[in-house]
Amino acid sequence: MGSAHSMSEEVRELVSKTGFSSEQIEQLHRRFKQLSGGQPTIRKENFNNIPDLELNPIRSKIIHAFFDNRNLRKAPNGLADEINFEDFLIIMSYFRPIEPNMDEEQLERCRKEKLRFLFHMYDSDSDGRITLEEYRNVVEELLSGNPHIGKESARSIADGAMMEAASICVGQMQPDQVYEGITFDDFLKMWQGIDIETKMHVRFLNMDAIALCH
Amino acid sequence: MEKPRECKLNHQSVFHLSHKVTSVVPESALLIVLGLILGGIVWAADHIASFTLTPTVFFFYLLPPIVLDAGYFMPNRLFFGNLGTILLYAVIGTVWNAATTGLSLYGVYLSGIMGDLSIGLLDFLLFGSLIAAVDPVAVLAVFEEVHVNDVLFIIVFGESLLNDAVTVVLYNVFDSFVSLGADKVTGVDCVKGIVSFFVVSLGGTLIGIIFAFLLSLVTRFTKHVRIIEPGFVFIISYLSYLTSEMLSLSAILAITFCGICCQKYVKANISEQSSTTVRYTMKMLASGAETIIFMFLGISAVDPAIWTWNTAFILLTLVFISVYRAIGVVLQTWLLNKYRMVQLEIIDQVVMSYGGLRGAVAYALVVLLDEKKVKEKNLFVSTTIIVVFFTVIFQGLTIKPLVQWLKVKKSEHREPKLNEKLHGRAFDHILSAIEDISGQIGHNYLRDKWSNFDRKVLSKLLMRRSAQKSRDRILNVFHELNLKDAISYVAEGERRGSLAFIRSPSTDNIVNVDFSTPRPSTVEASVSYLLRENVSTVCLDMQALEQRRKSIRDTEDTVTHHTLQQYLYKPRQEYKHLYSRHELTSNEDEKQDKEIFHRTMRKRLESFKSTKLGINQTKKTAKLYKRERGQKRRNSSIPNGKIPMESPTRDFTFKEKELEFSDPEETNEYEAEEMSGGIEFLANVTQDTATDSTTGIDNPVFSTEEDQSIFTKVPPWLSPEETVVPSQRARVQIPYSPSNFRRLTPIRLSTKSVDSFLLADSPEERPRSFLPESTHM
């Protein structure tokens, strides 16, 4: 990444953009280089090198999320072909733990960002709504790890969940009302009581040794 | 008639009073006071203390149930999620408390305030070690009233459980040191002490795990001895306690980990009734033991023979244990917050220090002391009693107002929401993925690895095959929710009277059950009782409902209906053998079952008839299903089917099961034309369903496998002249005559392949049938 001087400037830029500390950025950069095999960008195929990820039932969705233009804040839809380090960091920054000294507004913003990430994961066609089909898709993938639950039951669970969501968001519906899908606001409503900020984060420690071994 | 009323009023006031009292004063405190009174009476009568809490009784009979109860119902994920914190507090915290208390008391003794006592440093350290430990019984008793948030509770409670190893080691070490004599203690002995700590704690844990493994394995094979399943749970767990006690390892750790490790597999393997039995018995034993412990603490206190008063000692002990605990908690929390995701705030720390209650374990340990070695045993005993009373009564009384004043986050007991579970699961996977991608070995990574291992190896080994299939948390929540909905739905129905379920065709668009009104709990109780006791007799009218407008608006309708399909037909086994062509049943339930079923079938047919001319011509197929004996209903009750989306056709699917009946294809059928006569009724649903589907929510599948099972279980029905009976109670037994058995044709409604179906040889009016689906779970 060029000379030391430009590195630190870039790093500083990244620090201000993503909120990571410089040590964390260094460490993540090392990991990035590992994943990309020295290239400046990562493609989807590079994620296949991570063995543990294979076992993850929703890996395709997660990998998609890395390339999702909405998450990368580039476009309202579509997928990027490759991402560079800055994009990588942007995605990772969704999982930063919340700072202890955040005020209400920052907290709210943080929360919204995290929930938006989730929402984008579920809403695969980028239409701003999570329809039943998309939801079913997600649930099927989620439960695909369990060999004993068939597609049908996954489907019915998805339907049940969708109905629950509808009842939260819309309440008792009129006979001729139609529930299109979960919008982002509905999604927020669903998560109102639960403090996602404390649950949805990964701790980025300075564990060099771990980063180098698979 | 004045008296009864007065009595009633008195009873009510006493009840209210007692309720108010227990919400302010913790039960344990009340019990101690009661014990004191009793002890006073006994002493006044006999002038000797006849009843005391002997260590043997305490350690062998009273403590194990409580700890087992704690372990068996321990929220594992929470526990292991905070294990680092808990271990730190339990080990380091207890050692810190013991050391500082002992040393401070020694220091004060040296200064002479305490007067003339024949105690050495080691005695003080011994005393410190037994008074330092937080007591699980007391914590449970007091925190029960105070509903603090789960994390806080698990930390304090976990600490109280796990510090047993430390206490045991310290106690034994210092006890042996005291017997040796202060001058003979060498460095080697100290090292031995430290090593023995590891041996005791890890050994105890290992024993617990081994016995948990044994227990899970045993319950896997108890299918034919269901009655004694609960016995196994208790006996094997108790064995773990005794074994580790025998090997001088930490018995509390053993039984705790036995409970923790076995709970998942045991709960999966044993039957519902056994599970309930275990739960209730455990709770009963635990609360009984707790009550006895506190009462005896009170009674044992009234023993003038042991009373030695030394103001300085007692007062200072109280001061030291509180102060040093607070300091210890603060220091450790400061250290932990560097590594914890969820920080522990000041409020939490206050509750943790204040909630460090001492209890009967300390008392039992102090009574165990040998008077010849520890000369001031009586002083220790008195002090311990006072400390225990102080913490339980005073701290117990004041902790609730403190918690409220500090606005501690309370535990939220929310209804389990399916969405939460789903998203929770999604989180776990996402977080593990992020950890994998970023190359960290984090919490999620470990948990993921463990659950993979568990699924691949342990569950296969320890869980019954039938249980393995259904043991998914999301599924469980789903079932729970459905069942809840079903129960409330039926309760509502009962409240309204079953007539409410019968709709006139004109009002078919309106949900007849209003879920917004609060339901009387009495009805609900009776219905749920009904559901559990007599499942099949509960209103099969739901079936009728399903026929009607399957609109997405009737979300509750369909979910419950759907659930009822799954759940109401649970106890099928007992009917199985009653089913034969030649056997007439005399079972009362059978009658009702059949009657209701028949009624419903008629309704259904009527509705089909009305839509006969429409697009949807569905037929019912009857197939025989083998119901595997003992197969858990849950497995099979997962509905499968398709929801009509854009296509106007409806697919009804059900699971296939093998045929078991010795009789060949008994099928049900109903001849429509026979029915047309007396049937009046119901809504015409099917017509509209096709048009309902939107891209939004659709009806959950309603599986017709249950219907089919009904068909096969219930003899084919007949009796055309019988009209729809509004009441749910059967009045007439419907005879069934084998000669009317026919077979039905399914109509292919979708392009899905059909495995097999029976050909109908029925007359022109083709009965409807449902399509068997080739795939099943």
TrEMBL record, chain B:
It comes from the Eukaryota. Pfam families: Na_H_Exchanger. It catalyses: Na(+)(in) + H(+)(out) = Na(+)(out) + H(+)(in). Its main location: membrane. The chain crosses the membrane at residues 21-45, 57-74, 86-109, 121-143, 150-174, 194-218, 287-307, 313-334, 346-367, 379-399. Belongs to the monovalent cation:proton antiporter 1 (CPA1) transporter (TC 2.A.36) family. Plasma membrane Na(+)/H(+) antiporter. Exchanges intracellular H(+) ions for extracellular Na(+) in 1:1 stoichiometry, playing a key role in salt and fluid absorption and pH homeostasis. Major apical Na(+)/H(+) exchanger in kidney and intestine playing an important role in renal and intestine Na(+) absorption and blood pressure regulation. This is Sodium/hydrogen exchanger. The lineage of its organism: Eukaryota, Metazoa, Chordata, Craniata, Vertebrata. The gene is SLC9A3.
